[in-house]
Amino acid sequence: MKKVLLYKPIPEQELKRLQTHFDVIQFDGVNTLNQEAFLTALSETEGLIGASADMSSSVLERAPKLKAASTISVGTDQYDLAYLANRNIPLMHTPGVLNETTADTIFTLIMCTARRAVELSNMVREGRWTKSIGENHFGTDIHGKTLGIIGMGRIGYAIAKRAHLGFDMKIQYSNRSQKPDAEQDLNATYMDMESLLKTSDFVCVMTPLTPETEGLIGKAEFAMMKKSAIFINGSRGKVIDESALIDALENGVIRAAGLDVFDVEPLPASSPLCKMDNAVVFPHIGSATSETRLAMVTCAVDNLINALNGDISENCANLHLLEK
Ligand SMILES: NC(=O)C1=CN([C@@H]2O[C@H](COP(=O)(O)OP(=O)(O)OC[C@H]3O[C@@H](n4cnc5c(N)ncnc54)[C@H](OP(=O)(O)O)[C@@H]3O)[C@@H](O)[C@H]2O)C=CC1
Ligand SMILES: O=CC(=O)O
């Protein structure tokens, strides 16, 4: 039986399924305490499956027998796609199954920031609700406003669908390529990023983290946004310059931010973002519902079984590089 290294706990039923196909070595995450044992196990493995751990080339150099990797995520930034392709190793991922749940989470961020839900709920819990709410605590409307999406992919589209159909929002987007579906179905307008930043009430980033998108939104971009703009990041922390965002929030350059992802995760409690009323911070929970996380694991297990049997026709993230 082929040896497979599992580096994240998964539901029993999916573990059993993996074990019927492979000899599975399990790690409950990778950390400084188990790093050496992990690297030793890696030296024997032909398949790798898990999430939320660095799998860059310096780690994978320790896996000379590796034939396929399967990440339990749609984002692939913890791997080096080109390095894997050079070694002819496919990286499988889980696109699609988490679109709707992640869009729900992003919409929760939009609503919490616009209506100051966390800040005002904390006021009630802490006994600071002493009179009826006045202008100082008013939020801002969501319906009828303009939502600018940077990265109109699968999840961007699911967010735009909620905004257009549910909240009567005007949708504009910037993206590497134009999206006729979003334009036809949701009346979305394609524009360059600068125009989008200047004219959106809500700016939502949903690109993958790649060398091209790292640091995409920084000081200059926050300065272009409306003073009343609400910024949402559901992609990856490194797509934005977090210190520039903190500055923009502290100095009233923009109104508020809703964040599911951060430069360093878990976000240290000492981060200024944890103390700001105009920042809503979530612990990277875009896809974190029982149903969707199970669907992702099922997809990732299927992906690894298929890939180790030579079938990478579905869900291979570096197929374009393998074909070169
Ligand atoms: N917060 C969370 O829990 C979650 C976060 N994510 C993050 O969201 C990302 C997007 O997921 P998903 O929608 O499935 O991915 P998609 O690939 O479907 O969408 C990404 C979009 O970004 C566009 N894009 C890529 N590079 C650039 C660039 N340099 N400039 C402008 N646009 C660019 C792509 O353009 P084109 O169509 O032309 O390729 C594509 O439309 C994931 O990679 C992950 O990092 C995902 C799930 C949950
Ligand atoms: O961040 C989550 C993912 O699936 O990517």
From TrEMBL:
Keywords linked to the UniProt accession: NAD, Oxidoreductase, Pyruvate
Enzyme class: oxidoreductase
Keyword tRNA processing tagged: no
EC number annotated for this UniProt entry: 1.1.1.79, 1.1.1.81
Residue intervals of the D-isomer specific 2-hydroxyacid dehydrogenase NAD-binding domain: 108-286
Family as reported in the entry's similarity comment: Belongs to the D-isomer specific 2-hydroxyacid dehydrogenase family. GhrB subfamily.
InterPro entries, A to Z: D-isomer_2-hydroxyacid_DH (IPR050223), D-isomer_2_OHA_DH_cat_dom (IPR006139), D-isomer_DH_CS (IPR029753), D-isomer_DH_NAD-bd (IPR006140), NAD(P)-bd_dom_sf (IPR036291)
GO CC aspect terms: cytosol
GO molecular function, one term: NAD binding
Catalytic activity: (R)-glycerate + NADP(+) = 3-hydroxypyruvate + NADPH + H(+); glycolate + NADP(+) = glyoxylate + NADPH + H(+); (R)-glycerate + NAD(+) = 3-hydroxypyruvate + NADH + H(+)
Protein name, entry field: Glyoxylate/hydroxypyruvate reductase B
Pfam families: 2-Hacid_dh, 2-Hacid_dh_C
Record-annotated D-isomer specific 2-hydroxyacid dehydrogenase catalytic domain positions: 4-318
